Each structure stands twice: as C-alpha cells, then as structure tokens.
Amino acid sequence: MKNRILIYVLLLLFASPVVMADEINLGQVYRQLDEAIEHTDEYVLQRENRIKEAKTALVNARDDKKRYEICRQLYDEYRPYMNDSAIHYIDRCITLAEGLGNRVQVQECQIQLAWQCTESGMYYEAMDILHSIDTEQISDARSLNQYHSTLAHLYSELGYYCKVPRLQQAYYAKGDQYRQLIDPTVCSSDEALQIKEVTCFGAGDAQGALRYSDMRLKQVKEGSHEFAIVAFYRYLDYQLSGDSVQARYWVTQSALSDVRNAVMDQGAMWELANLLMADGDMDRAYRYIHFAWQCASKFNTVKRNSQISPVLTAISDNYEASLKRANRQLLYLAIVASLLAALFLGILFYSNSQRKKLARARNELSASNTQLAELNAQLSDLNSRMRQTNIKLNESNRVKDEYVGRFIHLCSFYIDRLDEMRKRIHKMVKSKDLDALYKFTEGNDLRDKNLTDLYEMFDSTFLHLFPNFVNDFNALLKPECRISLPDEGVLGTDLRIFALIRLGIEDSSRIAEFLHYSVNTIYNYRARVKNGALDDRDAFESQVKAIGM
Predict the structure, then answer these.
(1) Taken in order 296, 300, 304, 307, is the CA torsion positive or negative?
(2) What per-residue confidence (pLDDT) applies to 381?
(3) How far are the Cα atoms of 383, 399, 420, 465, 537 from residue 548, in angstroms, in the given order?
(4) How many other β-carbons are positioned within 10 Å of the β-carbon of residue 190?
(5) pLDDT beneath 70, residues of the chain
(6) In 13, 113, 157, 368, which residue has its Cα 20 to 30 A from 350's Cα atom?
(7) Cα–Cα distance measured from residue 254 to residue 236, given in angstroms and rounded to the nearest whole number
C-alpha cells in the first residue's frame, strides 16, 4: 500500500503541468488578460443568469430543506462576487438550519460565515463568530476540521497584512497552531495539500511549497475558480523563491481566471498591478488597478478598498512625476525652437514680404471666385425655384383648362335641363293641370338628382385629373384609417372634402356650401381624417395639396 502511494505521488510530481520560465511570454499573457477584461460584461452576465435562476427556484421552493440548499447555492455564487449578498444568504442558511434542527448544518454555516468575514477583511467579526462556537458541541469531524482551518486562515491573513513584525510572527505561529489541529484523514485531497503547502511557505521552504502546489495544480481544472486560488498560492511560492518571471506568470493566470469567472474579489489583479508599477509599466498598472477598484466596489469590502487605495495614489504620483518630466522636456524643446526661430527670422522676413504680395493677389482672386460661386449658387437656386413654379403653373393651367371645359359643358347641360323643365311646366300651365304641377314642384327629388349629377361630374373630372389621388391620399394615413371608394368612380364625402382642398378650396364654409353640409360637419370630417395621419397631423393638408405635383 505504501509503495502504491509513493508511485502515485511521484507520478503527480513528474506529470504536473509546470511551465518553464524560458517558455513564458509575459506580454502575450498580459494581452490575454486585457482581452478578458474587455469581455467582463459577458462573464458577469453568465453569473447573474445563474443567480437569477437560483432566486426564482428559491421563490418557488416548497419547504425549508429545499430553501436551505438553494441558499447555499446562492452563497457559493455570491461568495467571490458580492460580499454583502454572500453574508446575507449564509446567514439565512443558519436561520433555516436552526429551524430544521440540524445542528451540523448550523455549525457548518457559522464557520462559512466566519470564513467569508475573513476573506472580506472583517477579522474581528470572524473572531467573534468562531469564539461563539462551542467546539465540544461540534460532532462532525469535517466541521471541526473546517473550524480549525478557518482559524488558521484567519491568523494567516492577520499575519500577512500585519506591519508589526512581532505581532506578525505571533499571528503566523497561532495560525500554525490551529493548522496542526487539522486531521488530514478527513480532509479533501486539495485541502490536505494546501495545508502542507502553507506550512512549507510559513517555514520559508519555497521548493517544498511548490512541490505541493504542483500536486494541487494537477487536481484542478484550468481556468476554474479553484485554479485561480491554486495559481495565486503558486505566485506567493515563486515570490518566496525569488523567481520573478514565474511569479508574474502565475499571478496573471490567477487574475485571468478570476476575470473569466466574474470574481469581484480581485486579490490577484491588485498584486499584479503592484508588480507592474514596480516594473515601471504605469499604463498597464493603472488599467489593472482601476479594474480591480471597480470590482472591489461591487464586492464591497474594506479589505480590498484599503489595499487598492495606496496603489492608486502611488500610480497617480508617478503619473504626476512623469507629467512634470514631460513638461520640463517640453520647456527645453521650446527654448531650442525659439533660438531656431530667431536664427531664421531674418530670412523669413524677406520671404514673408514677397509671400504677402502674392497672398494679396491670391486672396483677391479667391474673393472674386467666391463671389462668382455665390452668384452661380443663387442663379442655380433661382432656376430651381423657377422650374418648380413652372411645374406648379402648368399643373394649375391643366386643372383650370379641364375644369373650364367641364364647367362650360355643365352650364350647357343645365341650360338644356332648365329649358326642358320650362317646357314641361308650360305644358302643365297651358293644360291647367295644377295637380301635376304641384307634384312636380313638391319634393326635393329634382334637387337631389341635380346634386347627384353634379357630384358625379365633379368626381369623374377630379379622378380624371388625379387618377392616383386615392392611393396617394391613403398612403398618408395609418392602415386602419384608410378610406375605400364606396363605388367605382365615386369619391364619397371624406375624399370629396380633401379633393376640394387639393384644388385650393380650403375654407370650410365654401366646402360646406358646395357639399350642402353644415360648417361644423365639414370641420368634424376634416379633424377625424387628420387624426388618422401617419405623420404630423398639422402637416397633413399641406401633404394633400402636394399630391400629383
């Protein structure tokens, strides 16, 4: 059994995907990170969709057991994404587990809450939560391991960010003390390897830490959130070993995985910006720290904000220093340019005097050309207006000629009809047939027939002059408001009103007089049709007047 374990460990060591320093192209890796940052919105949308689905499932959950499972899922989604929401859902898990009477789940969630507080820099809150847990009541071995692991992580974090050497050593020692209480037999493989890696790191054994990191790297999927964590620890290991190229490579890989997984707790990006600032790559450092600041604002923890603020200040100071250097260089160049200008001033004076004479002549010619161009433009505009006027005049003459001819014909028609009526009445008077005469003049049939003939004559004449009027008119209306001819060749009242407007008769009283309606009726007809206009109703009648032009 021991031989099999030894062989397995050796295979892990030799098969681990280690990247050699001479194979690393940091510029290419940085470009991959830049491209990922450009697509941040897509990665965030993927996580937001998962959160939305989980929240929908939570609303539809029928019992507290299912609600607990979904709240744990939401906690896992929010844990690296939004600290306040992560704390909210793990705290809700504690409430649900208490309601279910599941003490193991309550303890697990309390430990997770302490871990989340540690990750977000809420060290005092994490300490209070952990000290409130009675370890004698922890019956589950994995929960006890997680409890000790969280305490070890808490003190390691305190040691990492502590600036007082004596306290830093005390925190690291306390973390090691709790780490030694972890039972490796009930840990996951990655947890066990991480404990060994951190132990070697704390002891200053960079090579030992990297051996365990190689094993961890073999077990995680490249590009996953777990990969980002392993890559960040490798960065720390290579920093300890003094290999700056590998350190920069792995911290960039960690940041790249964080961006692609929409992780807002951007510790790796902050570290990378620090390294780039030290390398003098201020533009890239500024872009990365600005991105980390945006992520930190969304994650909303004091820890990241306090880390990023000094880097932003340092970058700003460096930019200011660079600007001052550039200003000094610009001043030197200005002095040199002034000397050169003085040197050539005498030569230029003579040349300029000659150039001014030529320029005056050119300006006069240019002014003449400009005036000529303006006159040509005015003439062209006048010609265009004259063409339009001629078109309208020709159209008006055509309509006038047509209607004059129809009017003459109509006058002749009604003269004949009146003469026929005179003869008929004369005959009735001569024969003293008063009853027939009374019946002939009693009703409105004669007037109605004459109006019908008049409207038929008007409709046929108008449609002869404007055969496409109905289609063009309907094109100005909404589909549901368009008007159909009641009969072939008959306009109807709506179209007849606007036909008169097309002919230039716009006054409602004149239209009412012609059509034998009241002025209010004509006004209502016009308003109703204009309300169905496809565009601006106020411009509708102007558009009707332009039909056939």
Answers:
(1) positive
(2) 75
(3) 22, 11, 39, 9, 20
(4) 15
(5) 1-22, 301-323, 326, 386, 388-416, 419, 439-444
(6) 368
(7) 11
